[in-house]
Specification:
24% of the residues lie in helices and 35% in strands. The chain is an alpha+beta fold and 225 residues long. It has one domain. The protein has a seven-stranded mixed β-sheet with strand order 5-6-2-1-9-12-11. A hairpin with a 4-residue loop joins strand 5 and strand 6. This is DUF541 domain-containing protein.
């Protein structure tokens, strides 16, 4: 595990900040034995025309705009980090500069392997991690847990931004999707929704709620035995 670094509002986020809408999507698929896969996505496609124009500039309002080569380099750093992480395998990345969608996916032997990994990957992708989360899954009881802790650092950094930049975060969203092989019996977070198939739980919230600590994404999901 790499040592945590205080790296905030970095390369891809610079583009997010000056687009009208962006999404961070975290998908976790958990098998009955506790292994599974993760897919992390940063999606700027709703503002791709504006982002494409920004990419032609050196800087905007004092913020340096990264080149495609720089973004590719940072993505590769995330891949290298993941390939060295315990219990992680099958690491893949995609970078779509037509729609401005970046993804990293990987497999894990045990869900404990991803604790802190997703946050570090987002940092490597130059996205500020806005919370601390840990995951657990007990195959015997069929209980999946995400423990979430808000960090004040995100709000401190947010408050340093210019007013026009702060406004962008009002439209930004974070989505987590958990998929299982067995049906879901219960999900304790009132913000989360269970799919019609009963095998997936989705939580979609505004990033501002995570930054200011008003939204809690802690959840405990119980599967059918």
């Amino acid at each position: 595990m790499l040592k945590r670094k205080a790296r905030y509002f970095l390369l891809i986020l610079v583009l997010c900040v000056f687009s009208s809408c962006f999404q961070i999507i975290e998908e976790i698929n958990v098998a009955n034995n506790g292994s599974g896969t993760v897919n992390l996505t940063v999606n700027l496609s709703a503002s791709k025309t504006k982002v494409a124009s920004l990419m032609l500039l050196d800087s905007v309002n004092g913020y340096k705009v990264p080149s495609k080569q720089t973004i590719q380099k940072e993505m590769e750093e995330a891949v290298v980090y993941l390939r060295s992480a315990p219990g992680i395998s099958n690491v893949k990345k995609t970078l779509d500069f037509e729609n401005y969608i970046a993804t990293i996916s990987f497999a894990f032997k045990n869900i404990a392997n991803i604790n802190n990994v997703n946050q570090n990957v987002l940092k490597k992708m130059k996205i500020k991690a806005i919370n601390n989360s840990s995951y657990s899954f007990n195959p015997e009881t069929g209980i999946f847990q995400r423990r979430y802790t808000h960090t004040k650092e995100a709000l401190i950094e947010y408050n340093k931004l210019k007013p026009e930049v702060k406004n962008v975060f009002k439209e930004a969203s974070y989505t987590s999707i958990y998929r299982f092989e067995k049906p879901v019996e219960s999900s304790v977070n009132p913000l989360a929704k269970v799919s019609k198939t009963k095998k997936a739980v989705m939580l979609n919230v505004g990033i501002m709620g995570l930054i200011n600590g008003k939204t809690n994404i802690t959840n405990q999901i119980s599967l059918a035995k």
